[in-house]
């Protein structure tokens, strides 16, 4: 079994595009949530959201004029930017004449690759103009559009695929890539996930009343995981990518190693015991975390910090309870915990990847980034864990073991354990 | 519209899809879109849509199949415009 390490990171987030900008943002606790007139005009209850800011010049650095003809998919755009950045960050070149690398593959998840492009196509078909779709409709609307674009840009020849498991997607992609390298089927895997900036993606959540409508006048205060005044999640969008590599390959290349992926687990609550299409089976969540520790071969008391799923809905307290049971740690003995969603909202299919990058950066920089908007910790949470375990500002600390979990509609769970890389 | 004017317009239309610049520099009536310009075959339908927009014509499926060279394309455009 191969050890698996992380050698490259790329991120497109609402509060920072590119690794440096994102690192600065998460350490400062910078909110990427803004008001969007378009949502208000369409009658959304929640008119705030997180959308990465990307200039036309920046886009032109990643996609050719030909690729940009008839291009209408932010999910593919974000995926390509983060994927190319991660690949270069790992020390690989991006060159259209590069030699095909059969030992490198891609698992890049998404909810839907281009809902805006899909809408455009549907309108044309309804207008009896199916032939006007041209060649761009299929590749931009297939779920595997992002991995397909990236596969060609990077020139990689191992498995190129897309996974989709709602808000677990990004963390699942990471673990699928991890397994592939661990079992020797690939040496390098670019893993990540992407979610588009579109009111058509967000509308259904607005209709379910799971997004907050109380902060349209104060967008930066809107995303409030673990807070007593949390009133629903704030939608976000973006992408992130990580280059996973066998330790052997990384050492051979003398690559910079950000962290080691020690293990993890993916499971489902089967929509039983309180679980449903939209709610988690608590027992399965606890089991997922415990099994991740077993897979990583470490005990729960080793965990220095947790990056939670914690969306700012009524389920936050249940999630904290699940962590306390799974780790058998509570009160002052609980690890530090944070939620990146307080800064960037819930980036849905992209959340697991963006949050994993943030988690890995905590190991790299040996710190825990702050939660914002939870100075009023929910009483059900403060009954379970000491308030100091929910940092309100950056904490410098030795971080050796970190747990990151994501949970999604369909009652699906994923938990990954990262470790500071030590060469022994 | 003269053949020269037509060729000029067609050259501008295919330019963004070209992957062989050398072939594009030598573009003439005998030029084959796929063999000489290395245009991705999927993009041929985009060129046809652009041609339709530029010349305000509609190209039927049978004609589309023949639009593989500059010569054939000019011929089809002329026929449609004179129809």
Automatic annotation (TrEMBL), chain A:
Protein origin, superkingdom: Bacteria
Major localisation: cytoplasm
GO biological process, one term: fatty acid biosynthetic process
Family the UniProt entry places it in: Belongs to the thiolase-like superfamily. Beta-ketoacyl-ACP synthases family.
Name of the protein in its database record: 3-oxoacyl-[acyl-carrier-protein] synthase 1
Catalyzed chemical reaction(s): a fatty acyl-[ACP] + malonyl-[ACP] + H(+) = a 3-oxoacyl-[ACP] + holo-[ACP] + CO2; (3Z)-decenoyl-[ACP] + malonyl-[ACP] + H(+) = 3-oxo-(5Z)-dodecenoyl-[ACP] + holo-[ACP] + CO2
Pfam short name (any one): Ketoacyl-synt_C
PANTHER family listed in its UniProt record: 3-OXOACYL-[ACYL-CARRIER-PROTEIN] SYNTHASE 1 (PTHR11712:SF306), POLYKETIDE SYNTHASE-RELATED (PTHR11712)
Quaternary context: Homodimer.
SUPFAM superfamilies: Thiolase-like
Top-level class of the enzyme under EC nomenclature: transferase
Residue ranges constituting the Ketosynthase family 3 (KS3) domain according to the UniProt record: 1-420
Keywords, in A-Z order: Acyltransferase, Cytoplasm, Transferase
Protein's UniProt keywords contain Cell inner membrane: no
Entries under CDD domains matching the protein: KAS_I_II
EC code(s) of this entry: 2.3.1.41
GO cellular component, one term: cytosol
Residues passing through the membrane, by range: none
GO molecular function, one term: 3-oxoacyl-[acyl-carrier-protein] synthase activity
Location(s), subcellular: Cytoplasm
Automatic annotation (TrEMBL), chain B:
Family matches, as PROSITE patterns: CARRIER (PS50075)
InterPro entries assigned: ACP-like_sf, PP-bd_ACP
Matching Pfam families: PP-binding
Domain Carrier: 1-81
Protein's recorded name: Acyl carrier protein
Organism this protein belongs to: Polaribacter porphyrae
């Amino acid at each position: 079994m191969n050890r698996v390490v992380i050698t490259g990171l790329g991120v497109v987030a609402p509060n920072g595009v590119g690794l440096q900008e994102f690192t600065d943002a998460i350490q400062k606790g910078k909110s990427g949530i803004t008001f969007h007139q378009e949502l208000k005009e369409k009658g959304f209850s929640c008119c705030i959201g997180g959308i990465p800011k990307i200039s036309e010049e920046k886009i032109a650095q990643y996609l050719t004029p030909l690729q940009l003809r008839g291009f209408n998919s932010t999910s593919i755009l974000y995926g390509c930017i983060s994927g190319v950045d991660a690949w270069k960050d790992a020390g690989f070149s991006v060159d259209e004449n590069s030699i095909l690398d059969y030992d490198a593959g891609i698992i890049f998840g998404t909810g839907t690759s281009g809902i805006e492009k899909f809408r455009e196509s549907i309108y044309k078909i309804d207008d009896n103009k199916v032939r006007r779709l041209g060649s761009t409709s299929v590749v931009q609307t297939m779920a595997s559009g992002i991995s397909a674009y990236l596969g060609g840009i990077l020139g990689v020849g191992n498995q190129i695929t897309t996974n989709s498991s709602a808000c677990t997607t990004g963390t699942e992609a990471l673990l699928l890539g991890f397994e592939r390298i661990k079992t020797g089927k690939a040496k390098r895997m670019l893993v990540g996930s992407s979610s588009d900036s579109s009111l058509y993606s967000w509308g259904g959540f607005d209709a379910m009343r799971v997004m907050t409508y109380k902060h349209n006048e104060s967008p930066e205060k809107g995303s409030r995981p673990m807070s007593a005044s949390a009133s629903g999640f704030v939608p976000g969008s973006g992408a992130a990518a990580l280059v996973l590599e066998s330790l052997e390959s990384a050492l051979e290349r003398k690559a910079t190693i950000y962290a080691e992926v020690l293990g993890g687990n993916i499971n489902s609550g089967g929509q039983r015991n309180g679980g449903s299409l939209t709610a988690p089976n608590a027992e399965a969540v606890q089991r997922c975390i415990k099994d991740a520790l077993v897979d990583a071969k470490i005990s729960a008391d080793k965990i220095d910090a947790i990056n939670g799923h914690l969306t700012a809905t009524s389920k936050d307290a249940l999630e904290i309870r699940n962590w306390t049971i799974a780790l058998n740690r509570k009160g002052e003995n609980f690890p530090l915990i944070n939620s990146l969603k307080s800064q960037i909202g819930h980036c849905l299919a992209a959340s697991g990847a963006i949050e994993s990058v943030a988690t890995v950066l905590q190991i790299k920089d040996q710190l825990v980034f702050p939660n914002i908007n939870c100075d009023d910790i929910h009483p059900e949470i403060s009954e379970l864990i000491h308030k100091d375990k929910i940092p309100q500002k950056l904490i410098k600390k030795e971080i050796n073991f970190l747990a990151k979990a994501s949970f999604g509609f369909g009652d699906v769970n994923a938990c990954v354990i990262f470790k500071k890389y030590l060469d022994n | 519209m003269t053949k020269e004017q037509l060729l000029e317009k067609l050259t501008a239309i295919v330019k963004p899809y070209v992957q062989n610049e050398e072939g594009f520099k030598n573009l003439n009536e005998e030029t084959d879109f796929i063999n000489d310009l290395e245009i991705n075959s999927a993009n041929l339908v985009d060129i046809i849509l652009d041609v339709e927009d530029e010349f305000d014509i509609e190209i039927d499926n049978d004609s589309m199949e023949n639009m593989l060279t500059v010569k054939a394309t000019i011929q089809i455009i002329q026929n449609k415009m004179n129809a």
